[in-house]
Amino acid sequence: MTSIMLSTVKNYGKTLEKTYKAGEVIFREGAVELSMFGILEGQVEMTLNGQLIETIEAGGIFGIGAIVHGDHQRTSTAIAKTDCVLVAMDRERFLFVVQETPMFAIEVIQSYSDRYRNLKKVYEAAIAE
Buried b vs exposed e over 36-70: b needs ≥16 C-beta within 10 Å? Predict the structure, then answer.
């Protein structure tokens, strides 16, 4: 992940840094929320229906879907794989940052596109078996 994207989340984040212990749930699938997260330290596992779908490393972001979709619903569960330090950004600040720093928006889109491509490869390998 680019340091510009994470530093933007940190600089414009809604809250101070928040620490999660390994195994702690950050958010649950189905929850209605209006924030995204940047990982300053640690790793976060994303699960769907209890199955691991990916691990996001320090420098990555996650949880954007809930702030850009109208229902604001989480479509996966985020669990701290290791002790983590995260920073949150709410919807209002996200929209402000996108307007003020368009490169941030491009980097967020690229990040999610990269993750989609990786998940697509996993899916294609699974159905080929």
Answer: bbbbbebbbbbbeeeeebbebebbbbbbbebbeee
Q: Are 27 and 33 spatial neighbours (Cβ–Cβ below 8 Å)?
A: yes
Give pLDDT tens digits for 78-88: 999 999 999 88
Contact present, 67 and 35 (Cβ < 8 Å)? yes
Residue 35 identity (one-letter amino acid): S
CA 95 to chain centre: 16
Per the DSSP assignment, residues forming a β-bridge with 39 are 86
SS (H, E, C) the chain: CCHHHHHHHHHHCCCCCEEECCCCEEECCCCECCEEEEEEECCEEEEECCEEEEEECCCCEECCHHHHCCCCECCCEEEECCCEEEEEEEHHHHHHHHHHCHHHHHHHHHHHHHHHHHHHHHHHHHHHC
The pLDDT tens digits of the residues spanning 20-41 come to 999 999 999 999 999 899 899 9
Q: Given this model, what pLDDT does residue 1 score?
A: 43
